[in-house]
Amino acid sequence: MMPELPEVETIRASLEPHLVGAEIKSVEVLNPVVITGGSQEAFQELAGAVFTAARRRGKYLLFDLKTSDGQDKVLVAHMRMTGRLLWHSAKQPLEKHSHLRFNFQNGAELVFVDVRRFGRLWLVALEEIHTVSGLNTLAPEPMDEDFSVEVWERNIANRKKSLAKGVLLDQRAVAGLGNIYADEVLFAAKVHPERRVETLSHRDNMNLCRAMQAILQEAIRLRGTSFRDYVDSDNRRGGYLDMLQCFMREGQPCPRCGTPIKRIKVVGRSSYYCPRCQRRKSKAAKKA
DNA sequence: CCGTTCCTGGAT
DNA sequence: ATCCAGGAACGG
Fold this sequence. Notes:
This protein has helices at residues 5-19, 40-44, 149-156, 164-169, 179-189, 202-221, 283-287; strands spanning 24-29, 35-37, 50-57, 60-66, 72-78, 83-88, 98-104, 109-114, 120-125, 262-266, 269-273.
């Protein structure tokens, strides 16, 4: 559930060795509603194409393809809430809510399954990749060299009245965080989810950036968080669940100070935080 | 710029 | 039977 950057990266990494070099035999569009970019026919015309790379950008998966007539195309996938991309080395009966199936020459198959049908697929020419909604306005990767506290501060400069939680979830401010890791980052940086970003000190912003990088890196290492039913393409669960400090821990003692974790709604999302470690007002604001 | 909408299964 | 979860597009 809720694939965020670490889960999407885990899916990418687990798919890469299977997918790269695999030649498509046929594509079955079982439910065209998940196709946002490209037509049903365009997907079916991928027969003969070969996957050449498995990339990730934020929560988007980018699968490069070379068609049989030499065109460069990209299959873009966003899992949203419940999307799954499953690799089967041999044919299997279609499970419920299967929407698209790639059949490969070697007998393997790749199935896109999504109970809630929020997930989206695009098939675009490589040079048209910017037409994928959200991808063109996506902020830098928090783990990349071109991300820094300066970039972060620049990206949040025009939305000073916004709440910290809302900005962490905004893919135009930083790519890849969702509800789980946003709460964990705020906890690690000791920032209240409802803090207005204009009140954040440079030190707060540094702590936030450091927390993003450290938490995402560790979550990737542990293959993501399987909080309900998230699995990677090989049906494996992630190991970060036990590392969660506040998410889904309402009423349980804060790992730092023992104060019971609170749960509130912020920008329409459940937000878990420690009311003692994460003060709503900055120290400077309280003195004034 | 915030609230609403999409969608289904699981919880109550 | 009703409510709730939530990423991102969309509308007021």
